[in-house]
Every structure is written in structure tokens, then in C-alpha cells.
Write a structure and sequence with these properties.
The protein is flat. It is an all-alpha fold. Helix 4 runs parallel beside helix 7, helix 5 runs parallel beside helix 8 and helix 7 packs antiparallel against helix 8. About 15% of the residues are buried. Helix content is about 85%, strand content about 0%. The protein folds into 3 domains: about 45 residues; about 40 residues, no CATH class; about 130 residues, no CATH class.
Length: about 300
């Protein structure tokens, strides 16, 4: 009996140790899992941190690139503005106004050395320069010399491009320049490659109006204005050259607008004719259907 009890006690103790060992193993397993999870979490946080630092570095780089681009654009604009100022300055120094004023100022200096200006010689020299600059003939670009009138749309289109360059070089009052810009816009739309220019080519009279405006009327109006405005400074007339040019530009614009309206009305007539044709054809078909006997049921 004692032996059986001792054997049972040993088995019970062994089972307890196995249970304790199993629980300890489970605890160790849980501890290992917890440590692994913490390691993964740490690695994830580190990865997020690295990614965040990488994104921040990229943002800084992008901001730096944008700043460099903005600085480059600003430098380009400043460079263009500086070149424009230099070009205008050189253009004025080479202009007839500056040369005439300089000659008059030299005459004032000669008068000063001769003792005729006295203590007011700076006023005399400056006044003579200003008077010479005002009386000098203004800059007048040569009017384009076109060839003989042509009935080809392509040649008139090329002449219009030359005319626009000439208008860009001429010094025109704002109102007349705006009216002439509207006129050249109408002519450019009519002469544009495509069905519009094809419609103009089918209208010899309309093409003659456009070619006459491009080759003769507009250049003559601008050239006579540039000539007359200088003489008006010496002897003003009853009507200023600016008003005369604005009136001529308005008349030419009205003539071109009438041509465009005529081309539009021709297309509208063609469209209405086609509508009547379709209506007549549909009415005849309906009448024919009404005369047809009904099918037996």
C-alpha cells in the first residue's frame, strides 16, 4: 500500500512538473511572440520614419527646384526688360529727334562760348535741344512696295502679313491703331486657308476689295498720316492728322465688314435654298403617299 501511495505521489509530482513546464513554455512562447511583434512594430515605425524623412527630403528638393525655377523666370523677365530698355535707349539715340536736338544744342554751346548766352547758358542749350527734337521729322518706316495686283488668295495673304509688320513699326494713335487691328483681323479671317478663302476666291469682286485694301488703301492711309503729322507741328491745319486717319480706318473697316456680311448672306441664302428643297421634296413624297390606295386589311 505504501509503495502504491509513493508511486501515485511521484506520478502526481511528475504531472505537476509537466504542467508547470508546459505553462512555462507557453509563457516563453508568448514572450517570444511579443518580442517579435515589438521588433516588427519597431521596424515598421523605423520604415515609416525613413519614408517620412524621404518624403520630407523630396518636398524640400521640390521646393528648392521650384524656387530655382521661379528665380530663373524672374531673371529671364528682368533680362528681357533690361534688353527692352537698352533697345529703346539705343533707338532714341539713333533717332532723328536726338540728332536734330543735339545739333541745335551744339549751336547753343557755340553761342555760349561766343558770350551770347551768359549765365543762362544751360537753359539756352536745353531749350534748343528740346526745340530741335520737337521739330525733327518723326520716324517714318517706308511703306511696303507690293507687286502688281494679283487675283490669287495666297499672294494676298502673304501681302497681308507684310502689311501687319509695317503697321507694327509705325507710330499710330491708339484709336486708329485699334481700328486698323480690327480691320486686319477681318481680312485675316477671310484670307485664312480653308473654305472661307475658297468662298472669297469664287467672288472676284470681293477678292479685289480685299487686295485693294491690303496693297493700296491701308499703306497709303498710314504713310500720309506719318507725313502730315510733322507738317502739322509747323503749321496746324483745320483737321488733325489723327482724326483723318481714324476716319479713313473706320471707312475701310466698314467696307471690309460689308464684304464679310455679303459672304455670310450668300451662305445663308444657300442654306435656306436647301431647306426649301428638302421641304418641297418632303411635301411631294407626302402627297404621293396620300394618293396611294390603302392596303386591304
Amino acid at each position: 500500500m505504501a509503495t502504491s501511495r509513493e508511486e501515485g505521489a511521484r506520478r502526481t509530482a511528475a504531472a505537476g512538473r509537466e504542467t508547470a513546464d508546459g505553462r512555462a513554455g507557453a509563457f516563453e512562447d508568448l514572450a517570444h511572440r511579443d518580442l517579435a511583434a515589438r521588433d516588427l512594430a519597431g521596424q515598421g515605425l523605423a520604415g515609416h520614419g525613413l519614408a517620412g524623412r524621404d518624403m520630407a527630403a523630396r518636398d524640400v528638393a521640390d521646393q528648392g527646384s521650384a524656387a530655382q525655377g521661379g528665380a530663373g523666370q524672374g531673371s529671364a523677365h528682368r533680362g528681357a526688360a533690361h534688353r527692352g530698355v537698352v533697345a529703346r535707349t539705343v533707338g532714341y539715340l539713333e533717332s532723328g529727334r536726338n540728332l536734330t536736338g543735339s545739333v541745335a544744342a551744339l549751336g547753343g554751346l557755340a553761342l555760349t562760348f561766343a558770350g551770347g548766352a551768359g549765365a543762362y547758358w544751360p537753359v539756352v542749350v536745353g531749350g534748343l535741344y528740346g526745340a530741335g527734337a520737337l521739330l525733327a521729322p518723326p520716324r517714318r518706316p517706308p511703306a511696303p512696295a507690293f507687286d502688281a495686283p494679283s487675283s490669287r488668295v495666297g499672294e494676298v495673304r502673304a501681302d497681308l502679313a507684310t502689311l501687319r509688320e509695317y503697321l507694327g513699326r509705325a507710330e499710330l494713335p491708339p484709336a486708329a491703331a485699334e481700328r486698323l487691328a480690327a480691320l486686319t483681323g477681318l481680312l485675316e479671317g477671310v484670307l485664312a486657308p480653308g473654305w472661307a478663302s475658297e468662298a472669297l476666291a469664287d467672288d472676284p469682286e470681293g477678292l479685289h476689295v480685299v487686295a485693294r485694301a491690303v496693297r493700296r488703301d491701308v499703306p497709303e492711309s498710314v504713310d500720309t498720316y506719318l507725313r502730315a503729322r510733322w507738317w502739322t507741328r509747323l503749321a496746324p491745319g483745320a483737321r488733325s492728322p489723327e482724326e483723318e486717319l481714324e476716319r479713313q480706318a473706320a471707312l475701310l473697316h466698314g467696307e471690309a465688314q460689308g464684304l464679310v456680311n455679303g459672304l455670310r448672306e450668300a451662305e445663308e441664302v444657300r442654306q435656306r435654298s436647301h431647306t426649301r428643297y428638302l421641304e418641297d421634296r418632303g411635301g411631294g413624297a407626302a402627297a404621293a403617299d396620300g394618293e396611294r390606295p390603302a392596303a386591304p386589311r
